[in-house]
Write a structure and sequence with these properties.
The complex is a heterodimer of chains A (308) and B (303). Chain A is mainly α and 308 residues long. Chain A contains 13 helices and 2 strands, in the order ααααββααααααααα. A two-stranded antiparallel ribbon of chain A has the order 1-2. Chain A is flat. Chain B is mainly alpha-helical and 303 residues long. Chain B has 14 helices and 2 strands. In chain B, strands 1-2 form a two-stranded antiparallel sheet. Classes of the chains: A mainly alpha (308), B mainly alpha (303).
């Protein structure tokens, strides 16, 4: 219980930090008015700019501005997009389902492929299978997602014409972005599964299990794999951060209509409030899921509960 | 090792001589490490010697010779081994100059985050208490942002540019160093040689920098090698998205962004740059793995 409370307090601090950083973005260049107006400021008179500054409240003390920023954000008000003519919050929330769909697909894909392959290579160390999996791991960790995406488009989209190269709608649209986004976490999970399993295979309790005469299959799955999964559960939280961050790139390459592509488009059109709202939203989802994972962890691994 | 150093009272941490020859032997014994080192040497030479190695001006825009395939020769007799891009610039020359941008950004950012992370990790691990709490909370907050997203947001506000990119990657990259150094310090400060130094009444800062610091170099070097790889990818990613270096600068990321618009028309725009990034990152990763196993195999569990 003490752990849960401490973990909750930590989340509150993180959310506070996210708000500070998101608020601070406006002041990075020294003048928030400039950030919001962008090139538009060139066409305005000094008086108009002053008026805009007063209207947005940028002439007030920082603390007051921050309080009003948080107050509004709590009500779902993240400013207005002058380009989309829509509240920034709505622009982002509309795109959220697409991003979650893509991230979830990539997440499942990475686990479904990496864990069996990791088991396969750990149970046959130093064989051809093991070397192939290791090579795959290295490639997956070294090929940046944007290039992998381009290669897939070239091969499956342009050459073979099997899959659509951009957009969304059918399951076919999901395949290439999903693989591209999943590649890196897949490689890492494979590596993790393999090394974690090799580690547990040396332990006494596994030797005992073998000595009892139970089948090798049962030793591998019931004893070794089950224990090896714990470090993978830990890595899952970080993985989600990668999926959300990576979605920005993958969505841009494949024209996937999600939050990431929206953020990049908003950067291009200097639509600051949309960028801010998008970043806050993704960071909050990330923090929320991490909290959830840690709480599930308490339930899975009683050692944490007891250790406090 | 100089004679002076040999005569000086040897602190426990000075690497004894046999270790160096062991390093060489084990290095040559690993094919992956040797090949990686060769690849990285090529990249380094390209970066340092770009003005002499590049066959053509990487900035020269000539629309009349746009999108020519690899091996094309113009009327003046200049050969474009990897073809030209949409503005008629030489792809090979841009690739060579791209190595320069990649390495400058990756190394400078790495140095900034390394110094910050090392100092914060040392101080928070050794002194603990409130300082430790604050540093670790800041680390938590930063980890709550996917790094690329944080860098993207900051660059979006600041605008693209080499110097800004270095600063942003440098300032956001310290957490990994900080955490690992802190963990090591927590363990080392319980060791007898530290307790002994304390018992003799040495000053805290002296203990921290003379006794503890030399023992955390291994993980720092290993983290640095992995950060080097992730910095190269981050530079390319951000440049690809248009918020890294400014679009006219020849970087592997901007080359891919340009080439993306001509997928299916001009593969020579995307293949070389992508290959350059992947091979460089792969080599750094392999060398990093090797370095980790050589310096301290126990790090395998945490890195």
């Amino acid at each position: 219980m003490r752990y849960v409370l401490r973990r909750l307090a930590q989340s509150v601090i993180v959310v506070f930090g996210v708000s500070i950083v998101a608020f601070g973005l406006l002041f990075l260049t020294g003048d928030p008015t400039e950030v919001i107006l962008g090139d538009g400021a060139d066409r305005m008179t000094v008086d108009q700019i002053q008026e805009f500054r007063a209207k947005m409240g940028f002439d007030r003390p920082w603390l007051v501005q921050y309080a009003s920023f948080v107050g509004k954000a709590l009500q779902g008000d993240f400013g207005y997009s002058f380009i989309r003519h829509q509240p920034a919050y709505e622009v982002i929330v509309d795109k959220l389902p697409a991003t979650i769909q893509l991230a979830a697909f990539a997440f499942v894909l990475s686990l479904v492929i990496s864990i069996p392959l990791g088991v396969l290579s750990a149970t046959r160390p130093n064989t051809t299978v093991d070397h192939a999996v290791t090579a795959l791991t290295l490639a997956g960790q070294s090929i940046p997602s944007f290039w992998l995406g381009i290669l897939l488009i070239l091969f499956f989209g342009v050459e073979l014409k099997w899959l659509p190269i951009s957009g969304s709608g059918t399951w076919k649209h999901l395949v290439m972005p999903g693989i591209t986004l999943a590649a890196f976490p897949m490689a890492r999970n494979m590596r993790l599964t393999r090394s974690s399993m090799l580690d547990f295979m040396q332990r006494d309790f596994v030797r005992t299990a073998r000595a009892k005469g139970i089948s090798e299959r049962r030793v591998v799955y019931a004893h070794v794999l089950r224990n090896s999964l714990l470090p993978i559960v830990t890595a899952v939280g970080l993985e989600l951060g990668f999926l959300l961050g990576g979605s920005v790139i993958v969505e841009t390459i494949f024209g996937w209509p999600g939050v990431g592509r929206e953020i990049v488009a908003a950067i291009g059109s200097k639509d600051f409030f949309v960028v801010q709202a998008g970043v806050i939203m993704l960071a909050l989802i990330f923090a929320g899921v991490n909290l959830l994972i840690d709480l599930v962890y308490v339930w899975v691994d009683p050692r944490i509960r007891l250790g406090g | 090792m100089s004679a002076d150093a040999d005569l000086a009272p040897a602190p426990a941490t000075v690497a004894p001589k046999p270790r160096r020859s062991r390093l060489l032997k084990r290095f040559v014994g690993s094919k992956a490490a040797v090949v990686s080192a060769i690849v990285l040497a090529v990249v380094l030479i390209a970066a340092l010697g770009a003005p002499w190695l590049a066959p053509n001006d990487p900035f020269a825009i000539k629309l009349i010779q746009r999108l020519k395939p690899p091996g094309w020769v113009n009327s003046a007799g200049a050969t474009f081994w990897l073809g030209t891009d949409a503005l008629g610039r030489d792809v090979l020359s841009r690739l060579i100059y791209g190595a320069r941008v990649s390495l400058i950004v990756a190394v400078s950012a790495l140095a900034i985050s390394g110094v910050i992370g090392l100092l914060l990790g040392l101080v928070s691990g050794y002194f603990g208490g409130v300082v430790d709490d604050i540093v670790m909370r800041i680390a938590d907050i930063q980890l709550s942002f996917p790094t690329i997203l944080l860098a993207l947001a900051i660059m979006a506000v600041l605008g693209s540019g080499l110097d800004k990119l270095i600063l942003v990657l440098g300032l956001t990259g310290w957490v990994q160093y900080g955490r690992i150094v802190r963990g090591q310090v927590l363990a080392i400060k319980q060791e007898e040689f530290v307790l002994a130094a304390r018992a003799t009444g040495e000053r805290q800062w002296r203990i921290l920098f003379q006794h503890i610091l030399p023992n955390v170099w291994s993980p720092v070097i290993v983290v640095a090698s992995f950060t080097m790889a992730s910095n190269i990818v981050a530079e390319a990613s951000l440049s690809f998205l248009g918020v890294g270096v400014s679009p006219s600068v020849p970087s592997w990321g901007t080359m891919l962004a340009d080439g993306r618009q001509y997928i299916g028309i001009a593969e020579w725009l995307t293949i070389p740059a992508g290959l350059a990034i992947s091979l460089t990152v792969l080599s750094i990763n392999l060398l990093g793995d090797w370095l980790r196993d050589f310096l301290d195999p126990r790090l395998k569990n945490i890195l």
